[in-house]
Specification:
This protein starts with 14 loop residues before the first strand and ends with a strand. It has two domains: about 15-155 and about 360-395, ATPase, nucleotide binding domain (Nucleotidyltransferase, domain 5); about 160-340, Nucleotidyltransferase, domain 5. It has helices at about 55-60, 70-95, 130-135, 145-150, 160-165, 210-220, 240-250, 250-255, 270-275, 285-305, 325-340, 360-370, 380; strands at about 15-20, 25-35, 40-50, 100-115, 120-125, 140, 180-185, 185-195, 200-210, 315-320, 345, 390-395. The protein contains 13 helices and twelve strands. The structure holds adenosine-5'-diphosphate and magnesium ion. Magnesium ion binds near residues 22, 26, 27 and 29.
Length: about 400
């Protein structure tokens, strides 16, 4: 996948745009991709628009039940769609492209609530698809999670089918590697792509990614220029507290078998404050170091569960913003080396996919899969009764 400097404009639309806004509520990621006759994907360009503090706060304030939610959520539904449309329109100007060059936008939207385990499970992504289509004059494919949930699935994660097309080393012999793609966003999700067809592809949320670290960092560093612990420098000043780590790890979510998915309504500052009730004596930096260990250990525990043979060849590709957190990456590495003799800890960039763009690229692929009627969900991943083509279409 190479980035072209000169993009083609022609009479027939050529490109898909993928739009992603993750649970970190940091901003909008946009990826421009095309597909050749063999469905091979090419990534041409990217764009990022950070949210203002005010927008990020509006999103985060809806992660948990509060007052007047319907009015606030549906006003934000339209407000975010306007921001998404502005990002698309600015990007097209920057790239000297026209709306007519774009076949469709694959829009994930912004998750504000995800409840896969209640009696009537639902998931809610806002950033109105119809408004986005109207303001860009481009077809939008959106609401990707709904059909999988209607089929009894978790509606998450949706990226494993895409990961499989890019990263799998599956062979019928025993010479391939077990591959894991680990996306460390607000929540961390991993995809397991087994070396042989004796095992099934699976994927799920291992638990918190950056979310709790971001919450704790922002609470104690309100004047920092970043809303996150850059490179883990603050965590580095603390020590992992073994007792607190054990308490964190005893949370029910980590014991659940997959398929499973979670969200910000669960791993939230209120979750952390509850855990800390009897830990008033430890420093804030120690809490941050222990949260870093929690993310690393829950990721590595999931990897070990699927690839228990410590002699096997295992490749782990990291992506998402957490891959920039040096201490988190080092802690993952230290956990892996305790178990595996023959592993490689990599970044998706080493497979030519920018780890900050992978999810946006995946949603462009999901829009393409919708148009080609490909099965884009994996029922082995989500627990749905069958695989399906995800998404709904919205016309300008
Ligand atoms: N240099 C860095 N050091 C530490 N953490 C980082 C760094 N860069 C990004 N992050 C983390 O990545 C998050 C954004 O990651 P992203 O993949 O966009 O998540 P999401 O999909 O949830 O929006 C930030 O909130 C922050 O926690
Ligand atoms: Mg993000």
């Amino acid at each position: 996948m190479k980035i072209n400097t000169k993009l083609s404009t022609s009479n027939a639309p050529t490109y898909y745009i993928g739009l992603m806004s993750g649970t970190s509520a940091d901003g909008i990621d946009l990826a421009l991709v095309s597909f050749d006759q063999n469905n091979l994907l090419k990534h041409h360009a990217s764009y990022y628009q950070a949210y203002s503090n005010e927008t990020a706060e509006k999103i985060q304030s809806l992660y948990n039940p509060t007052n007047n939610e319907i009015d606030r959520a549906f006003a934000l539904d339209v407000e975010l769609a306007k921001l998404f449309a502005a990002a698309v329109n600015n990007f097209l100007i920057q790239q000297q492209l026209n709306y007519s060059d774009i076949i469709a936008i694959g829009n994930h939207g912004q998750t504000i609530r995800h409840r896969p385990l209640i009696t009537h499970p639902f998931t809610l992504q806002i950033g109105c698809n119809q408004t986005l289509a109207t303001l860009t004059n481009i077809r939008v494919i959106g609401q990707f999670r709904r059909k999988d949930m209607a089929l009894g699935g978790q509606g998450a994660p949706l990226v494993p089918a895409f990961h499989q097309t890019i990263f799998s080393e599956r062979q019928s012999s025993d010479n391939g590697a077990d591959v894991f793609v680990v996306n460390i966003g607000g929540i961390a999700n991993l995809t397991f792509l087994p070396a042989t067809d004796k095992q099934e592809v699976c994927g799920y949320d291992s638990g918190p990614g950056n979310a709790l670290m971001d919450d704790w960092f922002s609470l104690h560093n309100p004047h920092s220029k970043t809303k996150y612990d850059e490179n883990g420098n603050w965590a580095r000043k603390g020590q992992i507290n073994a007792e607190l780590l054990t308490l964190f790890l005893s949370d029910n979510y980590f014991q659940l078998p997959h398929p499973k998915s979670t969200g910000r309504e669960y791993f939230h500052l209120s979750w952390l404050k509850r855990q800390l009730t009897n830990f008033t004596h430890i420093s804030n930096e120690d809490v941050q170091a222990t949260l870093t260990a929690l993310t690393a250990i829950t990721i590595v525990d999931a990897i070990k569960q699927h690839s228990p043979n410590n002699e096997a060849s295992t490749k782990i590709y990291l992506c998402g913003g957490g891959a920039h957190n040096k201490i988190l990456k080092d802690t993952i590495d230290k956990q892996l080396v305790l178990h595996y003799k023959n592993y490689k800890l990599l970044l998706t960039n080493q497979k030519d996919i920018d780890g900050d763009q992978l999810e946006a690229i995946a949603f462009a692929w999901l829009a393409f899969a919708y148009d080609k009627k490909l099965l884009s969900s994996m029922s082995t991943v989500t627990g749905a009764s069958k695989c399906c083509t995800l998404g709904n279409e919205y016309l300008p």
